[in-house]
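User: I've been going back and forth on whether these two constructs are worth ordering. Before I decide, could you fold them both?

Assistant: Sure. I'll take them in the order you sent them. The first construct and its structure tokens:
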Amino acid sequence: MPRVLIVGGGFAGVATAKALRNTSCRVTLIDQRNYYLFQPLLYQVATAGLSPADIAGPIRGLFRDQPNVRVVLGAVTDVDVGTREVIIRDVRVPYDYLVIAAGARHSYFGHDEWAPFAPGLKQIDDAISIRSRLLFAFEQAENAESAAVQREMLTFVIVGGGPTGVELAGAIAELAHHGLAHEFRAIDPSKARVILMQAGPRILPTFPESLSRRAAAALTTLGVEVVTDSAVERIDDQGVVVSGCRVAARSVFWAAGVMASPAAQWLKAEADRAGRVKVVKDLSVPGLPNVFAIGDTALSNGWNGNPVPGLASAAKQQGCYVASVIKARIERRPPPAPFRYRHAGSLATVGRKAAVAEFGRLRLFGAPAWWVWGLVHVLFLSGMRNRMVVALEWFWAYLTYRPSTRLITGEIPMPTRSTFAPSTAGSPSRVAVRR
């Protein structure tokens, strides 16, 4: 039977494999991780709201009842389009149809030296690392030797005002104001300073301007400082330099940009500045009719002539479409019409009973948008177990204001001097940031 090889076990890759369920072909899905991750809730793992197992599950479990799918754990290093083989280190895997849905990684816009000081949020490992840094910052502040060090420990900077940055900033503010209340003696966690920095004129630039303003107002109510028109110039272990001013902070988190996987290099195909492979109307790579690029890997103008956004719904639609193209070719039927993205809407939560939602002409904000956001995200989770656990976790957090997974894991850097601040240590003061 024809061999369909899918690189990437995210939204796009899994959707493609599932849509080929009743097709006479052998499907091989390759991913360097063994789990299927619901990325939109990754920030909740990073802020101690959920555990990793609540938003992820084994890829193999998704295809237990689909015998034409084989899952392979491995990292693709290259593609030989001449021999139609994908290379996993020294192993070559042949294909008749290749679907690349390898996702994206962090982009620091040419400043990769910032990565150690400003981790991004793309995988479970990232979320666990950020959670440990975030919680350990409060522990260090409790034991700080001076008010100045305390201020640095209790200052959190998020770079990037898209949905991830907005949701991360709101969750950190809620954790500081409610989740950690009355648990420390030398510090008041609610005095933590959370700064959201955006290079553009407003946060959530892909949303209507009215919803962006409401999101900014909701963040301000939570105590988040929203700083716009401020491009980051430097990030180091002492903080951030933005618009010529330094903000002293020991915790900086990156949510500003992404770079596509190296698929364009593997295929020697044309790509945009973000590394996305430019595809034609049926999502195949120009000159390679049996090779398709979808999800964050691809640049498609299937949204009424505009680039398809990097959303989960878009990735799933592309996966189902490519499966229909492959199925039509295998069954020798006419191809489907060119791919057309159907926008299902945009959602972003700011905090407790605060969110923004856009469904075409329908725009919601506040509590109604928050309830819709929660319902949609629960329904989109994979597996009934995850849906039930997340719903219960959220219900408990709603009643108690207490996140349940405040664990510091991994190697913890210890202070060089064991000097402890007295319980009368001064509370953090505000440091001016030029806006």
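The second construct, handled the same way:
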Amino acid sequence: MTALPNDLLAAVFTEAHTAHAFTADSVDDNTASRLYELIKFAPTSMNSQPLRILFVRSDVARQQLLTHMADGNKAKTASAPLTAVLAFDANFHEHMPTIFPHLPGAKDLFADESRRHDFARGQAWLQAGYFVLGARALGYVVGPMTGFNASTLDADLLANTSWKSICVVNVGSPGPDAFKPRLPRLAFEQAITIR
């Protein structure tokens, strides 16, 4: 493996900011597909891949979504050309024979619903991080949010599925005043212990 050049690291990490406003420039379906094809290779425990994504683009779907967003997140979501509802699939284990074939019976390890949901939620959050980094790597800005009513969103936009929402992410190009000043980060010494 070779380290990425500093300009690419900056674009994905150190110079990237959460976006709060977007231009009207579209994010097409090919880009959404490319994003998924990029992030699906990142690791998850037991290759479980529980993340599911609902891309919201149409005016009708966006209006539905806005009814579930916290007031402070409605305007930014309305301005984004593409919004992704990130969810975990409560029935991800049904795919284990295909995605983890070397362990027969892997599906049965997740028979307990509560354990399965906890596992899927944790792994989907891991994949949500990959989603943010993948979108940035493709040249977009993102605005991840947890300020929404998950139970009503799930009943409305994810009805008749086994998906449970965890995060909503706006994706696009930055509009005017898209970025707020960066908040402080903890220093290495505050966050890291080496033994």
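Notes on the second construct follow. The chain has one domain: 17-138+155-175. Residues 12 and 136 are 5 Å apart (CA to CA).
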